[in-house]
Design goal:
The structure holds two protein chains of two kinds. Chain A has twelve helices and five strands. By secondary structure, chain A is an alpha+beta fold. In chain A, strands 3-4-5 form a three-stranded mixed β-sheet. Chain A has a two-stranded antiparallel ribbon with strand order 1-2. Chain B is of the alpha/beta class. In chain B, the strands form five sheets. Chain B has a seven-stranded mixed β-sheet with strand order 4-10-9-8-7-5-6, with helices on both faces. In chain B, helix 4 packs parallel to helix 5. Classes of the chains: A alpha+beta, B alpha/beta.
Chain lengths: 276, 407
């Protein structure tokens, strides 16, 4: 479903009920069915200010698209945030950032909330936009840490260089996430196949990567795909890929996103043991 | 008079919300206004409007008469010794700020102590904190017990040589318990400490006699007791008001002004700088008349008692409901704050609203009390004499339905 279709679907769902009490019941059900939010992420930086009830909101990037998680201590607020993130989940940061959120007006939610709740709604929308904006241009702190290996190439980058190269770096990561392992439904970046990613001042990309198994029959195709995907990023002047099997790839190199995707943290035996 | 008959005097109570009859149970925030109050305000604005105390023309005389009549009516209602002890303000908050600022200026210095209770509205905490900040004074807090009753026994120990004033609420806007003001005043006065009473809720539910209570200051708002908004009262004993410097400077409050020095008007004008709320102050007259009727008419009193008992019983007997402010005897007014296990107070208020029931949710301007009770907020249903048994039943039924939806 496109973003516009998802919005229309919410508007349709809402207008199916004549009475506001029924619309609230719908929101309550949405709130109850919201996916659980990790307790450890209930931190102040994820908390939305401006709400009387508390709301936590976080997002991660998968395949170049934003996926939100949220929670609230009040169920109607939870229903509202659930409705919002259902619409924006899986959209690109730039699309969310420039969206006008006018469908919220269309369902009349703002007029039918108490003023404190309406403020909360405004704050929720602002937070969704803020998160999207931050995913467009990550902070300098992240940059330093991630681009650090670059220094080994005697091509020392100044803080200004790092800042300037950051958007390019992010776009290269997005490009890498477009390439999938032929056998596992997870992109090569989140699989942890990229051991090193450097961009020098000349905007040439150097990648050191591996495969899940040394005898991977698709290796050549995948490497060609990586090169093509990275080279097509605007601003990239060249792309060199080196292959290594040192260290040998194992499951610990999966990103959290990938673990979740593959359901690797779920151990049915352990679960059963806990229940009994 | 029955509550049904009383209701007819309040035009707003006939309206509907979301296609359902309005059940207004947020009276502790503000009461509704009877036709007599609306008419009075209308008349003051459309027939008798002029600035008071100044001009000699007929309109000014009319307006001044209405304004000063209201002072007499308030004096009589509170049984104050003198009409000069009644100062008009914009509300309870303004009255308390006046005392904190002006009494504080004259009598509170570095290291002095101010005692407030943990169950105070922010309006009876923050003005004292501001004063304490300016003067390097200290705020001490009187606690409540697990049922919400003030720990009056510990007041004696809390008072020291440095205690300059005790500021306490007559009835907490959250707990709804009538505090033993007479007893508190007796303890404080035995140490020579004056007492300010926040009467915002107390004036609505109890017959207030300031001489009998013995308090030094009593503050209340008009809008919670049927009068127009933006008008309030500060009762203060003459001995204190005389000794306190003016709060705000301006017109009306002066006797003679020159750049060599200014002398101030006598009480009560000394504390009424600037143009007063001339349209609203006179509405206190019909408002207090009605309040008096509500507290004395046997039928209304009996009806309110029946409503109280029904709601109290319904809430207290529900294992999911935790009620804050549990009375030992008959000291509770029909104001019920509670939480429901597993349900957020704001969700309840929102759903109840859609059922036509207006209640309050949140911290109710009493964050320290919320912390003391270990909650982030509560739901509050506060009744007025015009609330019928039918409405009380509707509230309880709607509450159960709302809890069912949310759980």
């Amino acid at each position: 479903m496109s973003l516009e279709e998802k919005k229309q679907s919410v508007i349709d769902d809402f207008s199916a009920y004549d009475e506001w009490l029924d619309k609230y019941e719908y929101l309550i059900e949405l709130g109850k069915s919201l996916e659980p939010y990790p307790e450890e992420k209930k931190t102040d930086d994820k908390l939305i200010k401006g709400c009387q009830s508390r709301v936590w909101l976080d997002a991660e990037v998968r395949d170049g698209r934003l996926w939100f998680v949220a929670d609230s201590d009040a169920i109607i607020t939870k229903g509202i945030i659930s409705m919002l993130i259902d619409v924006y989940n899986g959209e690109k940061a730039e699309d969310i950032e420039k969206d006008d959120f006018s469908f919220v007006e269309a369902i009349g939610l703002k007029d039918n909330l108490s003023p404190t709740r309406a403020n909360g709604l405004v704050a929720m929308i602002a937070k969704i936009k803020e998160i999207s904006r931050l995913r467009l241009t990550p902070s300098l702190e992240m940059t330093k840490e991630e681009v650090a290996p670059e220094k080994k190439n005697n091509d020392v980058l100044t803080a200004e260089d790092v800042k300037e190269l950051q958007p390019l770096y992010d776009n290269v990561v997005l490009a890498l996430k477009q390439v999938y392992d032929p056998e596992i439904p997870v992109n090569i970046y989140d699989l942890g196949l990229i051991y090193e990613l450097n961009i020098n001042k000349k905007r040439e990309v150097n990648i050191l990567m591996t495969f899940t198994a040394p005898n991977c029959p698709m290796a050549d195709e995948v490497m060609a795909e990586v090169k093509e995907s990275v080279s097509s990023v605007p601003g990239v002047k060249g792309c060199k890929i080196d292959l290594t099997f040192e260290p040998v790839w194992d499951r610990s190199m999966l990103s959290d996103e990938a673990r979740l995707e593959l359901g690797l943290d779920y151990d049915p035996e352990e679960d059963e043991a806990n229940e009994s | 008079m029955t509550p049904e008959e009383l209701r007819r005097q309040f035009p707003i109570l006939g309206r509907e919300v979301y296609g359902r009859p309005l059940v207004y149970l947020d009276n502790a925030a503000t009461s509704q206004r009877p036709g007599a109050v609306v008419d009075c305000w209308n008349e003051m604005t459309s027939v008798r409007n002029a600035n008071i105390h100044r001009a000699v023309h007929r309109l000014a005389v009319d307006a001044t008469d209405a304004y000063e009549n209201a002072r007499d009516a308030v004096r009589e209602y509170l049984n104050a010794a003198e009409r000069e002890e009644i100062v008009f303000t914009s509300g309870t908050t303004a009255s308390i700020n006046l005392v904190a600022s002006s009494f504080g200026e004259a009598f509170i210095g570095e290291g002095d102590e101010i005692i407030v209770s943990v169950a105070e509205h922010h309006s009876n905490i923050v003005p004292w904190q501001l004063l304490a900040g300016r003067k390097n004074a200290v705020i001490k807090v009187l606690d409540i017990d697990e049922n919400g009753a003030l720990a009056v026994d510990s007041l004696e120990k809390l008072i020291s040589q440095r205690t300059k004033i005790v500021a306490i609420t007559h009835v907490s806007n959250v707990l709804g318990l009538v505090n033993p003001v007479k007893e508190i005043v007796a303890v404080c006065h035995s140490h020579g400490v004056p007492v300010l009473v926040d009467g915002a809720q107390g004036i609505v539910h109890t017959k207030v006699d300031v001489q009998e209570l013995g308090c030094d200051f009593y503050a209340f708002s008009g809008h919670k007791i049927f009068a127009a908004t933006g008008v309030g009262v500060l009762y203060g004993r003459r001995k204190w008001l005389d000794a306190m410097p003016p709060y705000m400077g301006g017109g009306e409050m002066i006797d003679h002004v020159s750049f060599a020095g200014t002398t101030f008007a006598p009480l009560p004008e000394k504390f009424e700088a600037g143009t007063q709320n001339i349209a609203s102050v006179p509405t206190l007259v019909p408002a207090l008349e009605l309040a008096k009727l509500c507290l004395s008419d046997p039928e209304l009193v009996a009806a309110e008692k029946a409503v109280f008992e029904f709601v109290f019983e319904a809430l207290a007997s529900d294992p999911k409901v935790k009620l804050y402010g549990v009375p030992r005897g008959t000291e509770k007014v029909p104001l019920f704050s509670f939480t429901v296990e597993g349900v957020h107070h704001e969700d309840l208020a929102l759903v109840l609203d859609k059922m036509g029931v207006a209640v309050r949710s949140g911290q109710m301007c009493a964050e320290p009390l919320m912390d003391r009770c270990g909650v982030t907020g509560m739901l509050r249903a506060s009744f007025a004499p015009y609330n019928t048994m039918q409405e009380a039943e509707c509230f309880i039924a709607s509450l159960h339905k709302a809890i069912g939806m949310l759980l």
